[in-house]
Request: fold
Amino acid sequence: MEVIYEDNHIIIVNKKSGEIVQGDKTGDRPLSDIVKDYIKEKYAKPGAVFLGVVHRLDRPVSGLVVFARTSKALSRLNKMFAEGEVHKTYWAIVRSEKFAAATQDWQTLEHWLVRNEKQNKSYAYDQEKPNAKKAILKYRVLSQSDNYSLLEVNLMTGRHHQIRCQLAAMGCPIKGDLKYGAPRSNPDGSISLLSRRVEFVHPVSKETIIAEAPLPDDNLWRALDEGRCKM
Reply:
């Protein structure tokens, strides 16, 4: 586990692909328990450690996860996430065919998403459907190689599998995301989606907090990032 930021009220960690944020039916040890053990040992805390989960990342996704260390921070962060006051930036690798050239111009995607609980999958539609929720995101192309593009994505809404579903709906499934149409999986079972950056006003101190996740240890991620820096 890699800690990116911590203080008395919050802790931000870099989640590895394959980890689950909270316990689920798999019975696998969640990241929340790992963080609790870290806090208990580092601060020699007796008894149970408080840790509040305020948001989640899909299991195959890597990057930043924010936890609350106090009940005061938890209630305030829950409100901030619900009201869109926590700004999350994602990076995604997709096939390049969709984009003629890299551009810094932001584009907007709007769909209506319907979640299928049994399949643990969402479906995107151009028009409203029964039980659908509107999904909006903005994206831009940061760099390209011969076969892939690196996208920066900002969510305007928070829907189930939103980035994965909406990018697939425009013909650009995320690399390795078999559930949403990628032709093959990544060797480590990940999908090439990274919770790259988070920015918000601290719920207690009111200072601006900005945290950034390191890139996955992967040659394609590094190459596309180098291409971004050269633009």
Q: What stands out?
A: The two ends are 33 Å apart (CA to CA). The chain has a mean pLDDT of 94. The chain is about 20% helix and 35% strand. The first helix runs from residue 31 to 42.
